[in-house]
Amino acid sequence: MSNVLEHYQYLHQIPELGFEEHKTSAYIAQQLEQAGYTVTRNVNNTTGIVAQYDSGKPGPVLALRADMDALGHIIDGKHCARHTCGHDGHSSILLTAAQELIKENNIKKGRLKLIFQPAEELGSGALAMIEGGVIDDVDMIIGLHLRPKDECPKDFASAAMYYSASTTVEASIHGIPAHGARPHLGINALDAATLAIQAVNTIHLAPSLTYSVKATRCICDAGVTNAIPSEAYVCWDLRTSTNPAMNELKAKTLNAIKLSVESIGGKVDINVTKEIPAAEIDNDVTKIIAEAIVDVLGKEGLKDPIFTPGGEDFFNYPCQRNVKAGFWGLGADLTPGLHHPEMKFDTSALENGVKITKACALKVLGK
Asked: Which sites bind Mn(2+) (predicted)?
């Protein structure tokens, strides 16, 4: 048995939000340094970590990436951080695989880079690491994610995870305050917000495309019930299965918000606050991952590619840089679902994750 459960049990007890993973990154960095890796902490002034092992022989540069951050929840009326997306599992898998790879001395060519990334849930962690130059010399990058039980049970894995593009649009709407008895003297920000929400709801893309756009937050309050509110805030969540479709949906959404608010004399400040691209996966990398899964779980353990409306900031790496990317899903009997405050999974599946991760690395750097 590996040390993966030991690492997981520690990391699970210290959940930290994006860019605040101080204890998490300190533990991982220390473990990697003790294993013999050259470690760079605080990449781009964040909590991100990069560790490297150079075989001393010519070959490709392979990056393996894991995310570290927990999610913020409100539980029993209190704000707290909790690992409900499995990032503690991802970090434990990669850390354990890294320790075993260097201990077993099976890396025979090229360089191995380990990227422990902060702030995946914020959608800006990968971008921060890219800006820090961590993949400027990388030829191939591989990531993974635990999967829900109904999608991929334990002892199964999928070699390709096709995530959707995800965008967050926020609008601050400005009207003119007035007394409730004299609405003609004001511009009702609540009316403008309602018009904007309805206008966005009328957006259509081609029926062959998979997409959705919906308002997820609306805040508007004059402070009393007999006054016209002059300020409103609305947030929209946009999803598409492809990046070109997201470009179209985003443009139509911004236009609908602007024109609907201005139609009654209001003004609006619109900000696109988070953009996560759809999956860009290389077929050759997927083939390597599939072979690794079969080596560990057998042919019967290899699931078909998975398509999900969820977003994953990992895909900023191939979209921002010319690097081949692969992303796979690990079955772990995860219930009742990702991001659920009571999410749980079969931790014995982490051993499969370690073995598959090592097999991927050795197929690239071990011959």
From this structure: 85, 87, 121, 145, 339
Tokens standing for 184?
């003609």
Q: How far is CA 357 from the centre of its chain?
A: 19
Tell me, what CATH number does 205's domain have? 3.30.70.360
Element (H, E) at 76: none
Per-residue pLDDT reduced to its tens digit, 132-174: 999 999 999 999 999 999 999 999 999 999 999 999 999 999 9
Structural domain span for residue 320: 4-163+279-365
Task: Label residue 220 left, alpha or beta by phi (over 0 means left) and psi (-120 to 50 means alpha).
Answer: beta
The answer to whether the CB of 27 falls within 8 A of the CB of 92 is no
Give the distance between the most distant pair of CA atoms in the chain: 80
Name residues whose C-beta falls within 8 Å of residue 207's C-beta, 6 or more positions apart in sequence.
none
Of 276, 301, 318, the residue that ends a domain is 276
Cite the annotated binding site by residue number: 85, 87, 121, 145, 339
